[in-house]
Specification:
InterPro entries: Acyl-CoA_DS
Oligomer: single chain
Family: Belongs to the fatty acid desaturase type 1 family.
Distance between the termini: 26 Å
Subcellular location: Membrane
Main location: membrane
Membrane topology: Multi-pass membrane protein
Largest sheet: 2 strands, antiparallel
Helix content: 55-70%
């Protein structure tokens, strides 16, 4: 087996020493993700040299002395750094999310008993467009550069992403890249080690700590700063939000098919926002739902196998985030988002679709065992030799 090491500043793994060989599997991509995630579980008990160590507890008497002499003595800088890592509650977000979740329950009741079918179709359409704007737009196109898009496609995806109501593309991408750069560490705002409830909801109710804010500012955003569509949306985001997210959707049921105000507000308003929010949040917390834990088999030995198809594909995404085939919800090379990208590629509006073939992964792993270099370096060399056929996006498998 290969022993892999994860560096928090970049989503790649590094080779430490060879074992007896590389285990062959039907899918080398998933195998590489398996090795990557196995090391993550080992690493939690053993901090790396470049990670800040936890400060030992200070004796209570010493703390008391520090408080008594704080006027004349300067506080310990190390202690200030520790305090700056604490995340405070974001009370406006707490209140908004509580109201959205509670009022969406009434919207669900109206959806089942008291709305017109056109309102149901509008709800499904808006949720579908907003989710596509997040998955194929904000995530795969702008966060990971999985493909290139014509300006007309970028404008459409920008409008779709605005329907999600989760902030501008620029802000969301910066937060998501920060998540990838510090994945599975204490600096990760969506730390999956703390469980699904934390990654999905609790972290959304907290501000980033000053330490995290400082790290976040170091994320390279130069590519988005040169994207006119992204910067246009960032400049007038709240105007677009009011028009596209609030006014037009809420007005449609009242104006065009004479539905009730309650249906417009609670179904198209609160229930839609509830659905879209959780679909967008799952992009960061999906690994808690669909990702296998170290040592688990596929399918896992649990009752969830009847509901959820778990695999190592979520871990693969953190190993090779730019593969356009990586689904947000535990899939690979399937789903509406991948099909959506292929359709626009066939029409010539999406180009340079990036992916990694299983043979390329296999060559990279073999090179790691032979040369004792990092998997990232070997992957880059293998990708130079990879020759994808023309219109490979139309070929399945």
């Amino acid at each position: 087996m290969l022993h892999l090491r994860y560096y928090p500043n970049a989503p790649y793994v590094k080779y430490i020493k060879p074992g007896v060989g590389i285990m062959a599997s039907n899918d080398d991509n998933a195998s590489a993700a398996h090795e990557f995630y196995n090391y993550l579980s080992f690493r939690r008990a053993m901090p790396l040299a470049n990670e800040p160590h936890t400060r030992p507890p200070v004796h209570s008497a010493l703390q008391k002395k520090t408080r008594m002499t704080e006027v004349t003595e300067k506080a310990d800088p190390a202690q200030e750094i520790e305090l700056s890592k604490k995340r405070e509650a974001n009370w406006p977000a707490v209140l908004i999310l509580i109201h959205v979740h509670l009022l969406s329950l009434y919207g669900l009741w109206l959806l089942l008993y008291d709305v017109k079918w056109f309102t149901v179709f509008l709800l499904i359409s808006l949720c579908f467009m907003a989710t596509l704007g997040m998955t194929t737009g904000a995530h795969r196109l702008w966060a990971h550069r999985s493909y290139k898009a014509h300006i007309s496609l970028r404008i459409m995806l920008m409008l779709f992403q605005t329907l999600a109501g989760v902030g501008s593309i620029y802000d969301w991408v910066q937060q998501h890249r920060f998540h990838h750069a510090h994945f599975a560490t204490s600096n990760d705002p969506y730390d999956n080690n703390k469980g699904f409830l934390y990654a999905q909801i609790i972290t959304r109710m907290r501000k980033l700590s000053p330490h995290q804010e400082k790290l976040k500012q170091s994320i390279d955003m130069s590519d988005l700063e040169n994207d006119s569509v992204v910067m246009f949306q960032k400049k007038i985001y709240w105007l677009l939000y009011i028009i596209l997210f609030l006014l037009l959707p809420l007005n449609a049921p009242l104006e065009y098919w004479d539905d009730s105000v309650l249906s417009a507000v609670f179904v198209i308003g609160f229930l839609r926002y509830f659905i879209v929010l959780h679909a967008a949040w799952l992009i960061e917390s999906a690994i808690c739902v669909w990702g296998l834990k170290p040592g688990q088999k596929s399918p896992p030995d649990s009752n969830s196998v009847f509901i959820i198809s778990m695999s190592f594909w979520p871990q693969y995404h953190y190993l090779i985030p730019y593969d356009y085939k990586s689904g947000e919800y535990g899939t690979y090379d399937s789903g509406c988002s991948s099909a959506f990208i292929r359709v626009w590629a066939a029409l010539g509006l999406a180009t340079d679709l990036r992916t990694v073939e299983s043979k390329t992964i296999q060559r990279a792993l073999a090179n790691v065992a032979k040369t004792k270099r990092s998997l990232q370096t070997c992957l880059e060399e293998a990708l130079k030799e990879q020759c994808l056929p023309d219109q490979h996006y139309l070929r399945r498998g």
